[in-house]
User: What shape does this take?
Amino acid sequence: MIFVLLTHKIKINLKSGEKLMDISASNADHMKQLNRSVVLNVIRNFGPISKVDLAERTKLTFATISNIINELYHSNLIIEDGYGESNGGRKPVLYGLNPNAYFVIGVELGVSQVSAIITNLEAIVVTEYSLNTHFSRKSELVIQQIFDVIDEVIRISGIDYEKIVGIGISCPGPLDLEAGIVMKPPNLVGWENIYLRDLVRDRYNLPTFLEKDANAAALGEKWFGSAKGKENVIFVLADEGIGGGVIYQNRIYRGFNYGGGDIGHGTIDIDGPLCNCGNYGCLEALASGLAIVRRVKEEIRRGVKSKLVDIYESTEEDLTLEIIIESANGGDVLAKNILDEAGRYLGIGTATLINFFNPEVIIIGGSVVNDYDPILKTIEEISCKRAFPYYTKGIKVEKSMLGKRAGLIGAASLVLQSFFDHPNKIIAE
Ligand SMILES: [Zn+2]
Assistant: This one.
């Protein structure tokens, strides 16, 4: 791995020598911060590692490495972690990340649940807490629930507040990420223009990051899950709604209005059913958790036989996606057929994403696939058959390794990415 460092001075006409010094100083400062981040990330990815190996990997001088190691060590961010092989002299000390030096909070807004986790710097979950919610309630009540969930997860963890470095929030889109606003997600009925990021940031006085759910999940998988080490990744979130997230060259690809990769509202069937977004025949209207439940009910009303008929006739609300998946796993033909149908639609939507972004790996997650493996096979088969053949060569379609926690780990990863990009915020000058 080679890191090119900026050593040139900025060439602009300056009226005073004082300003030239300012700019040179800020340039040097920037480089120092960049080098710290580079060293910390190499330790995080390849540690335990010696100073010599760090210098080799980063192309920084041994003296620079020694200075940075000193700073990181005194900030408690790294620890001495054993000894390496001797090259004739003393065995070199190895340095590793101190994963419990700091902690982050991940928050996920689902259609029917608000959840939070606290993780350490390696995304190991320390505590988790969630509450059932309904977005048709007044938005103030849901926001209060979000605060309650965060308060509780901090309280249960027993972690010092000073050790928490930020809060990441994963939320269905559309979002205005610059202003930190939840716009009007089709599945969070009743929510419109909520300044969620700033509400959370102001209450906890911590750096707070808001991100579209599938993007956050994609980042989580890239850092800690099925896409670890991959540069170009697509995450297809098949949940109550359907979303897509894209990692392009290691970073979330957001697009102009922050909707990059959102396959849920791409039209699959021009004469298809009405979608929550107001359009017809969107992928979400055909293959989401809500669509699967609707399709099973339609088939029951048409007279198709299934174990699910009894549930439908006694209490219609009890006929949930969870029950349908359980029945499919138990061999119920109707449940299996409808899930297979959803899988084929998801495969077609995924094929479009493959053609657009040509990723190395496609991760499929969400409640539609987490507990039902056969659907993954269908998605893989259809997407690889429908996408342009050359683009599918060598790509992998995989189940989310983070599973039900993909959104929450993804939310935590938003903070971790910022933390490892800018460790200088922690290091005392
Ligand atoms: Zn739609």
Notes: The chain has three domains: 17-97, 103-220+408-425, 226-400. Residues 1-21 have pLDDT under 50 and may be disordered. The pocket of zinc ion is lined by residues 265, 275, 277, 279, 282, 284-285 (CB under 6 Å).
